[in-house]
Write a structure and sequence with these properties.
Blueprint lengths: L1 H4 L5 E4 L14 E4 L4 H4 L5 H16 L4 E3 L2 H10 L3 E5 L13 E2 L2 E2 L2 H22 L4 E3 L2 H7 L6 E3 L6 H4 L12 E5 L15 H4 L7 E5 L10 E5 L3 H8 L4 E4 L13 H8 L3 E5 L3 H7 L3 E4 L5 H8 L3 H18 L6 H16 L2
Parallel strand pairs: 1-2, 3-4, 4-7, 7-8, 9-10, 9-12, 10-11, 12-13, 13-14
Antiparallel strand pairs: 5-6
Helix pairs in contact: 4-5
């Protein structure tokens, strides 16, 4: 979107984007690429198929530059030898835990766990190799500082919304009762680094308020947990504004120091007070006084019982947080970093 706003022509090559999430009109043409779990493990012939499809797209479009949106796209570009900028949405640190996912009652097989463990180490090594030679964008200052040890051409690009998006928020009346919100599907598709499995227990207590979950189609509503499913982005922000508190209370892990999830900005722009676990150091640092920090999820029930009695105070805090978010948590403030990275990549290509 940043590139199209500056009159650049953009194409998309990847899994066909969901039109309810991505504006397909941003792209002049879309090329469907056969990404697969086997391909991401660099296994032939799956990897060779992906590379062939990417080459076909490059040959047809003849772009100046590729914006590689993850470590897999970056690895493809590096092997092909085409100029690119690496966008490190996920920081593939050795600290990153293996994502053991449960789907219903089915647990990943030992074979798949070994494959993912192998992949994690491989992807961390890919990232190091890519970053050492490639202009890189990443989401938090702590990730920037870590990658600086490999290459000084690393730029900060947090997952914040555009100013034009947050200007459209239609603020709602607050719920009469005390409500918390969580964005994501981590209750039905758990990941170790986003562990909130304890939340249903927390909200089984009648004194902790209620929880609204946005973005989880599988989750069924209960007496204290309201599942709203997937909502378009601006509709989600509108709905968020009717709640009091946003939760980002993942069970602590060392990897969290590099994380700066989108929901940090989403909660703030909607006027919610965010509760975070202290392991999310980048988020705590950027929010400053505009959040409440706990050390462990076990503290959450006691905090919520106290906050239930302070709805008016939370609403006043929320108004101040909106002002803070409008000035600090905006994509537009970091957009130039994208084009600084593009310039380095194009100049390096011209020198070859």
């Amino acid at each position: 979107m940043s590139a199209t706003r500056r009159s650049h022509t953009c194409y998309f090559a990847g899994l066909n984007p969901n039109p309810t999430i991505f504006d397909r009109q941003l792209f002049k043409e879309i090329f469907d690429i056969s990404w697969s779990p086997q391909g991401k493990l660099h296994l032939p012939p799956f990897w060779d198929q992906i590379k062939s499809e990417v080459k076909e797209a490059i040959d047809e479009v003849d772009p100046h530059l590729i914006h590689a949106h993850d470590v897999f796209a970056g690895k493809i570009c590096k092997e092909i030898g085409f100029p690119f900028v690496y966008d490190s949405h996920e920081f593939w640190s050795k600290d990153m835990p293996l994502k053991l996912v449960r789907r219903g009652l089915q647990v990943l097989s030992v074979k798949r766990i070994i494959a993912r463990s192998f992949g994690l180490n491989q992807w961390a090594n890919w990232q190091k190799d890519i970053v050492s030679e490639t202009p890189t964008l990443t989401v938090s200052q702590r990730a920037v500082n870590s990658l600086y040890k490999i290459n000084r051409g690393v730029f900060l690009l947090p997952n914040f919304p555009f100013k034009s998006e947050v200007k459209k928020i239609r603020f709602q009346e607050k719920e009469d009762d005390f409500w918390c919100a969580y964005i994501g599907n981590d209750l039905t598709v758990p990941a170790k680094h986003r562990n909130i499995a304890y939340l249903p227990t927390v909200f089984s207590d009648p004194e902790t308020g209620s929880l609204a979950v946005i973005g989880d189609k599988r989750l069924e509503s209960t007496a204290k947990i309201r599942s709203l499913g997937f909502l378009p982005y601006n509709e989600m922000l509108d709905k968020l504004s009717s709640y009091h508190v946003g939760l980002l209370t993942w069970t602590p892990l060392p990897y969290h120091r590099y994380c700066l999830p989108n929901k940090v900005a989403d909660y703030a722009h909607a006027g919610l007070v965010t509760i975070l676990t202290s392991s999310l150091e980048s988020a705590v640092e950027i929010l400053g006084k505009n959040c409440i920090v706990i050390k462990e999820p076990s503290e959450l029930p006691f905090l919520l019982k106290d906050l239930c009695k302070k709805k008016n105070q939370l609403e006043d805090m929320g108004k101040e947080i909106v002002e803070f978010a409008r000035s600090k948590l905006i994509w537009d403030g970091y957009e130039d970093n994208i084009f600084n990275a593009y310039k380095i990549a194009l100049e390096a290509d011209g020198m070859r």
